[in-house]
Design brief:
This protein is an alpha+beta fold and 806 residues long. A hairpin with a 2-residue loop joins strand 24 and strand 25. It binds flavin-adenine dinucleotide.
């Protein structure tokens, strides 16, 4: 065992080895992977090996697609033989909502670049003569995916990595990890210690235990999953081609050929549970099965027999039962762990064979180049905070497993694991009909239901549409109030605070106390890492706000940009303040009834802040800024006191027709103002120039990413954000819809909404820069429907900003 390495990867399953191979391909070969048993002796050894392309997320599709492209090439690339079965796949569709989803995914297939078709029941029978088509509307057919022996691809990638110079140390257990004062990591193993710059937790079923050594919370559950394989069947022996892998929501199972028999793997829709009673596996657990529970599976196996009667015609030859890691949202964890640099997560995969190659490729890019070519936000481990504890993780992971073949409509969330973080207004808002969504553990209102009817989730507009129209109307015509306590909030203070923020922010900092600016933190290559609002409280004290989901991500960005010994303190004050957004033409009158502060324009201008007393509550920070484009204030109130301020504002607002509004209305209102959203329009895939945000750059000073931003400006953007009006039917753009100019695919939407005040369905899309000019005619395919679109001037609402400055 060497004593120093650039990178140590803990765990030799398909995820760890996939990363090792791609780090080596990127030129990092001073890497050692340490495995306690043999390679693939964890979950990887018994996986069924399916590699589907069908996926509702563009970024995950890119990960999957890469695997289906690499695996058939691996034998040639590495000399290790591979059993790739390019049999394709059929995802069965039963309901109208599944159909809409399939059409959405079809758009994604165009963007990701794989061939897919939606086929009807007759065609299904032709492609798969042994499938019963009862209850089916259609199927989503993929042609270039299939299945593979997991050990083959893992060993092939290991061979490829070794040939490039990377090291693998088998039969050696990692027993501890600690951070050294030098900032390096010391990895203790049974064969001695290794000091490294980067350490990667790829420990599969043990990743939470390995994480706990350094205080990292790794939200995974090890769930018991089975598949069964029948004896060979004459019909399949005689069949000249291999049947596609079928994914059937009726039996909640995958069904495919294996050794001329039928392989069926159900994701039980109830009764799923953790392995080993929720405890981690024993350290000597290796290439073993977990005790099977065949009786419990019978209802799903019977339904699978109804779907494919051939399955019931042969005896079961083998039962495979093992642990699958599931995260609360079903997406693996890949990226930096929160806290000190260079501890990386690469674990929690529940479809790890399909994902191992792509996940490794993109994490390797991130580690080597500082960022990946795709948006990694979905995989970033920092999307979970300390609130994602054991009970939450188990409940949501089980829910995720049980819904493997369920069609989640936009906005639909797990009903379990809720109520973790609440603002002090939660009960008041619940009584007012708030329909809450969970965001970074918080319960945040999306819209208010007058009759208490919960949201009917759909890909189309549903029962929220009418109430949201009224919420938007209140904000545009009268006054609205929103609880946006979920903001991530930080205080940056100390003698060096101003200099430090000036260095890390692309925009000019506020020059006076009470000044507010919107600004961005960029990568060294000029890509957008974070968006923050900075308020200067004093020359050496700043109040920073960013997106709820970015709380840990942005804290890391702030901390990691701090120079050694820089006299700056960074405090996360998220939970200290609740936030009320009061917005609309009557906001001044309503707020004026509860405070003695002079709210007139000369005393309190747009983009300024002051501290004062509101409704008798002292220490309220009033920021004249909002994301909806109206006269208004954000009131940052000590969390416990918020109900008092809320009630006073609601009472004062009553004669003005005040109305509560939620994030659905906010999204519609911000689209009318063409305000970009972090994670949607603003990602590490684009520069500020490409996002059309040049007015937020101060080229007259130095800042991280400046040279690259100048290059982006001088050489011209590779892509440009266009603002579209789209002639949709009843379904607005959600993001990830393909954009065409004639027959040519020219872009992708990033988000959209119906703008009630302007009477248009609006969307943002990244397109070929030549096509971003107002007046350009384009087509957006919205869930299969080609919709005429036109690039329009930004913004659609109040372009002169008169209302904000009113
Ligand atoms: C029955 C079944 C069917 C499945 N079917 C599919 C499928 O069809 N398609 C698909 O994509 N996925 C499938 N999966 C899921 C897939 O198996 C997993 O997602 C994948 O194997 C996870 O890979 P991994 O590298 O994260 O974990 P693992 O393969 O478990 O690898 C982790 C490794 O880390 C090692 N390790 C842990 N701690 C230490 C330590 N302290 N020191 C050294 N080494 C350590 C372990 O020994 C292990 O080898 C299936 C899973 C099961 C159980």
């Amino acid at each position: 065992m060497k004593s120093h390495a650039r990178v140590v990867i803990v765990g030799g399953g398909v995820m760890g080895v996939g990363l090792l191979y791609h780090l080596a391909l990127e030129g990092w070969t001073d890497v050692v992977l340490i495995e306690k048993g043999e390679l693939t002796s964890g979950s990887t050894w018994h996986a069924a090996g399916q590699c589907p392309q069908f996926n509702g997320s563009l970024n995950i599709s890119k990960v999957h697609l890469y695997g289906t492209q690499l695996y058939p090439q691996l034998a040639k690339l590495t000399g290790h033989s591979i059993s790739w079965h390019p049999c394709g796949g059929l995802r069965l569709i039963r309901t109208e909502e599944e159909m809409r989803w399939a059409r959405h995914v079809h758009g994604i297939s165009r963007l990701a670049g794989y061939e897919a078709h939606i086929v009807g029941p007759q065609e299904i029978r032709r492609i798969h003569p042994y499938l019963e088509t009862f209850g089916l509307k259609a199927a989503f057919l993929t042609l270039t995916d299939g299945h593979v022996a997991p050990a083959d691809v893992t060993h092939a990638m290991a061979t490829g990595a070794r040939a490039l110079g990377a090291g693998i140390c088998r039969r050696t257990r990692v027993t501890g990890i600690r951070r050294l004062d030098s900032g390096e990591w010391e990895v203790a193993t049974e064969a001695g210690n290794v000091v490294c710059e980067h350490v990667v937790n790829s420990a599969g079923s043990y990743c939470d235990v390995v994480g706990s050594w350094t205080g990292h919370n790794v939200p995974i559950s090890n769930l018991l999953h089975h598949y069964v394989i029948t004896e060979p069947l004459k019909e399949l022996i005689e069949l000249e081609r291999e049947l596609p892998v079928v994914r059937d929501p009726y039996s909640s199972a995958y069904l495919r050929e294996e050794g001329n028999g039928v392989l069926v793997g159900p994701y039980e829709t109830e009764g799923a549970h953790e392995c080993w009673g929720g405890a981690p596996p024993a350290w000597n657990f290796e290439s073993e099965l977990v005790a099977p529970e065949l009786d419990r599976l019978m209802p799903w196996l019977e339904m699978a027999t109804e779907r494919m009667p051939l399955f019931g015609q042969a005896g079961i030859k083998s039962v495979i039962s093992g642990a699958i890691t599931h995260t609360p949202d079903g997406v693996y964890l890949s990226g930096p762990a929160p806290g000190p640099r260079n501890y990386w997560m690469h674990c929690g995969a529940s479809i790890g064979v399909a994902q191992g190659a792509g996940a490794g490729k993109y994490l390797a890019q991130w580690m080597v180049h500082g960022q990946a070519e795709i948006n990694m936000r979905e995989f970033d481990p920092r999307r979970f905070g300390p609130w994602a504890g054991r009970d939450y993780t188990t409940a949501t992971a089980i829910e995720d497993y049980q819904h493997m073949y369920y069609c989640y409509c936009p906005g639909e969330q797990h009903p379990v694991g809720r109520g973790l973080r609440k603002s002090s207004l939660y009960e008041d808002l619940a009584r007012a009909g708030a329909q809450f969504a969970q965001v970074f553990g918080w319960e945040r209102p999306r819209w208010y239901s007058a009759d208490g009817e919960a949201e009917r989730y759909s890909w189309a507009r549903s029962n929220w549409f009418g109430p949201v129209r009224e919420e938007c109307r209140a904000v545009r015509e009268r006054v609205g109030l929103m609880d946006l306590s979920t903001f991530a909030k930080y205080e940056v203070s100390g003698a060096g605070a101003g200099r430090y923020l000036d260095r890390i922010c692309a925009n000019r900092l506020p020059q006076k106390d009470g000044g507010i600016v919107l600004t961005h933190l960029l990568t060294a290559d000029g890509f957008i890492e974070s968006e923050i609002t900075v308020t200067r409280l004093a020359p050496d004290r700043y109040y920073l706000l960013s997106a709820a989901v970015a709380q840990l991500h942005d804290l890391d960005q702030l901390r990691n940009r701090l120079g050694p010994g820089e006299p700056v303190r960074i405090a996360d004050v998220t939970d200290d303040y609740g936030v009320l957004v009061l917005a609309g033409p009557r906001a001044r009158e309503v707020l004026g009834a509860s405070t003695a502060l002079d709210l007139g324009n000369p005393a309190f201008r747009w983009l300024t802040a002051r501290e004062g007393t509101v409704a008798g509550v002292e220490g309220v920070r009033l920021l004249r800024v909002n994301y909806v484009g109206e006269l208004g204030w954000e009131l940052h109130v000590p969390m416990a006191q918020m109900p008092r301020v809320y009630r006073a504002l609601m009472a004062a607002g009553e004669p003005h027709g005040i109305r509560l509004f939620g994030t659905y209305a906010m999204n519609s209102l911000r689209m009318e103002k063409a305000y970009r959203a972090w994670g949607g329009e603003l990602t590490t895939e684009v520069t500020l120039v490409e996002a059309g945000m040049e007015r937020f750059i101060d080229f007259g000073k130095e800042f991280i990413g400046k040279a690259a931003t100048e290059r982006s400006r001088d050489q011209g953007p590779r892509t440009l954000l266009a603002y579209l009006e789209v002639a949709v039917g009843e379904e607005d753009c959600l993001g990830n819809e393909p954009v065409y100019c004639g027959e040519a695919l020219v872009g992708v939407t990033t988000g959209g909404a119906f703008g009630f005040a302007v009477g248009k369905s609006l969307a943002f899309a990244y397109v070929d820069p030549k096509l971003a000019r107002p007046g350009t005619a384009l087509t957006v395919v919205v869930r299969g429907e080609p919709c005429r679109a036109r690039v329009i001037e930004q913004p659609a609402w109040d372009p002169a900003k008169q209302r904000l400055r009113a």
